């Protein structure tokens, strides 16, 4: 059971990263809590006679530290750190659990356990301060959010043992999530989440082991007012750029694309038309300067494409602030923001097609 749990928990960090392309960290965390609350609600009814409702504050404390607060911390953290680093830092949970059990719950002190705690902290600190160019990659400030989340997990574990030693685990989980659900549902209902569901429908199909994806893009639409309801459509332009894009020197990387205005997460930055290079001409491209500027293209990625506009001038970053979609049907490369980009900031992409991947580039 523990092995299965670690596999499920490990997958969650990857799924978080995928989900953050379309929704904000706050929306994703609220959605997670809302779904969990609705799922557990029938069990609350089933066990209603066994639930001691006078302990609702304790149930709420367990829920907030075990699920509520960590959800928001992890989701915000994974906007800037990789899912692998988040998973590794999550291993701090048993370390915090031991410390809290000794300091707050009076558990006996063991020198061997403390030695393990110190080794664990040393390893976690090394991961955090490796910086953006380390093996795992990530921003120390955002990595610290994960550390605080593991502290919350440890508090929850100890409170479960201290407050609910004789209570069925299913009751603890059901009531804790049940109490967290209403605020999350209310937030989602009054946020732009319904709009996001309609307008940010992104489909990805993995093209084998190459690590690249071919994508059909129907995202970042605009609403039109209509007497019979809201209709939506993709904006079709032969060339679309937000105002304020400009080319400037990027330290150590030559030219780069910058913005003179703030760009919100999810905004289309540029829709680049492409010049399609057929398969038989690709060997020739490899012998020219264009080798450093083309995108793989086609159903089997055997062709290549040169992006027009600023499309070939966005610099690579392991943890970028933007991403791209290869729209094979319309023959465009669509650049969009995956987090807020500030005025004067350089716009970057991860040319592996997946933010967080740090493999060597082909150019």
Task: Please describe the structure with a list of short key phrases separated by commas or semicolons.
10 helices; alpha+beta; six-stranded antiparallel β-sheet; 363 residues; four-stranded mixed β-sheet
Brief rundown of the structure:
This protein has 363 residues and is α+β, with helices and mostly antiparallel strands.
List the helices and strands and how they pair.
Layout: H1 2-19, H2 25-46, H3 56-77, H4 83-89, H5 93-103, H6 111-128, H7 140-163, H8 169-190, H9 193-199, E1 200-205, E2 214-219, E3 222-224, E4 231-233, E5 240-241, E6 245-250, E7 254-259, E8 268-277, H10 282-285, E9 294-297, E10 303-307, E11 315-316, E12 322-327, E13 332-337, E14 346-349
Parallel strand pairs: 11-14
Antiparallel strand pairs: 1-2, 3-4, 5-8, 6-7, 7-14, 8-10, 8-13, 9-10, 12-13
Helix pairs in contact: 1-4, 2-3, 2-8, 3-7, 3-8, 5-6, 5-7
Written overview of the protein:
This protein is an alpha+beta fold and 363 residues long. Helices cover 43% and strands 19% of the residues. The protein contains 10 helices and 14 strands. Strands 5, 8, 9, 10, 12 and 13 form a 6-stranded antiparallel β-sheet that branches. It is elongated and about 70 Å long. The protein starts with a helix and ends in a 14-residue tail after the last strand. About 13% of the residues have low confidence.
């Amino acid at each position: 059971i523990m092995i299965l749990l670690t596999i499920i928990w490990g997958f969650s960090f990857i799924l978080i990263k995928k989900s953050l392309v379309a929704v904000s960290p706050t929306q994703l965390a609220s959605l997670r809590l809302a779904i969990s609350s609705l799922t557990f609600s029938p069990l609350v009814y089933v066990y209603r006679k066994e639930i001691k409702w006078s302990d609702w504050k304790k149930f709420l404390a367990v829920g907030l530290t075990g699920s509520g607060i960590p959800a928001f911390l992890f989701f915000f953290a994974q906007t800037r750190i990789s899912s692998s680093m988040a998973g590794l830092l999550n291993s701090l949970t048993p370390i915090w659990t031991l410390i809290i059990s000794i300091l707050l719950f009076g558990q006996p002190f063991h020198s061997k356990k403390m030695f393990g705690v110190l080794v664990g902290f040393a390893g976690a600190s090394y991961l955090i301060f490796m910086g953006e160019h380390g093996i795992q990659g990530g921003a120390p400030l955002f990595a610290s959010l994960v550390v605080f989340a593991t502290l919350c997990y440890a508090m929850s574990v100890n409170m479960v043992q201290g407050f609910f030693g004789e209570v069925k685990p299913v009751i603890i989980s059901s009531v804790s999530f049940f109490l967290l659900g209403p605020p999350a549902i209310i937030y989602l209902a009054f946020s732009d989440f319904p709009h996001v569901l309609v307008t940010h429908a992104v489909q990805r199909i993995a093209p084998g082991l190459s690590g690249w994806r071919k994508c059909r893009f129907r995202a970042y639409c605009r609403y039109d007012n209509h007497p019979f309801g809201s209709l939506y459509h993709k904006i079709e332009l032969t060339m679309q750029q937000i105002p304020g894009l400009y080319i400037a020197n990027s330290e150590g990387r030559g030219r780069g694309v910058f913005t003179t205005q703030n760009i919100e997460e999810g905004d289309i930055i540029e829709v680049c038309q492409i010049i399609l290079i057929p398969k038989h001409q690709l060997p020739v491209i490899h012998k020219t300067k264009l080798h450093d500027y083309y995108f793989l293209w086609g159903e089997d990625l055997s062709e290549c494409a040169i992006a027009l506009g600023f499309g070939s001038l966005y610099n690579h970053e392991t943890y970028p602030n933007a991403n791209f979609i290869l729209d094979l049907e319309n023959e465009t490369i669509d650049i969009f923001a995956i987090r807020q980009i500030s005025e004067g900031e350089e716009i970057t992409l991860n040319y592996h097609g997946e933010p967080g991947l740090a493999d060597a580039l082909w150019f």
